[in-house]
Amino acid sequence: MTGVTDRIVLLVPHTGRSSNIESAVLAAEHLDQAGITVRVMINEEDDPVRTHPVLGRFEQVVHSKNAADGAELVLVLGGDGTFLRAADLAHAVDLPVLGINLGHVGFLAEWESDSLEDALKRIIDRDYRVEERMTLDVIVRDSDLEEIGRGWALNEVSVENLNRRGVLDATLEVDFRPVASFGCDGVLISTPTGSTAYAFSAGGPVLWPELDAILVVPNNAHALFTKPLVVSPKSTVAVESMSGTSPAMAVMDGFRPIPMPPGSRVEIVRGHRPVRWVRLDSLPFTDRLVRKLHLPVVGWRGPDKASARAVEPGADGTDAS
Fold it and tell me: Is 8-133 in CATH node 3.40.50.10330?
């Protein structure tokens, strides 16, 4: 290290490929040389970081609620799965989280791997801003309405049928009133951030992350009214399983499960603590959507500058309000 400092960064790398290890080494060495203490997240199983000649000399921690204690930022090198696990650590202690995509789509990452050195410089210089992303708080209750588990989600809560030979008989409820009952593979309750993940694959719409709303998407439901719903962020969304149906599971962000025995219910509200999301640029979500999903935009000309000014609020000299 080049100096003594109280700055700490928790590095959460995906170590499945040798190129990912190289990126983690680059990040750790750059931060270390800038006088920033590096703490490295490792998996509990055999992790190549444990004995790596460079990464192995930094402090190592496993996934726990206090893994990010004292850090100023959580830096994620990997895909969306790695980001969600790192966000769990950042959320626990209300820290900002920054993702650099080393995976495939990497919708949750701020930048790509070829911009890693620039991103590290921005971290070192504290040249970034933080925005808040909506989360969900989750409670699972048994048939007597006794709490049997609780958690939170950044992307979505997925109520999943555990019996693949049949359907899950469920009732969807919004604001403590029933909406529809149906047999299904499950129900997805998503944030705007999660609308481009599992909910999107299940036929849900894309919600811009600046929007405050809760998205509900029945998953392969057998009923006439199974369209996605976009409800108020002040609403309480619940899914009840029938007493005679299959056991289910409420899975938060794909890796935090809570069992749902027959007759139980899961209740979802807006999270009391958002995720603090590091932004390195000001590009609109539209550009990210087009780039990540490789959407065809050939032929777009766009408005000329005069037309754009003409449609801006207040552009004609009137009060925009």
Answer: yes
Residue range(s) occupied by CATH 3.40.50.10330 in the chain? 8-133
- What does the block give as tokens for 259? 């069992």
> Looking at the domain that runs over 136-270, which CATH code has it been given?
2.60.200.30
State the Cα–Cα distance between residues 194 and 204, nearest whole angstrom.
10
pTM of the model: 0.89
pLDDT digits (tens, 9 = 90+) for 278-305: 999 888 999 989 988 889 999 999 887 6
Residue ranges matching CATH 2.60.200.30 in the chain = 136-270
pLDDT for position 46: 66
Residues involved in catalysis:
80
Helix-strand-coil split of the chain, %, nearest 5: 20, 35, 45
3-state SS assignment for residue 20? helix
**Where are the extended beta strands (E) located within the chain?**
8-13, 37-41, 59-61, 73-78, 96-101, 111-112, 129-133, 136-141, 147-153, 156-161, 168-174, 177-184, 186-190, 214-219, 229-231, 237-241, 248-252, 256-260, 265-270, 275-279
Cα(300)–Cα(234) distance, integer angstroms: 38
> What is the CA 92 to chain-centroid distance, rounded?
14
Long-range contacts of 293-296 (CB under 8 A, 24+ apart): 293/105, 293/196
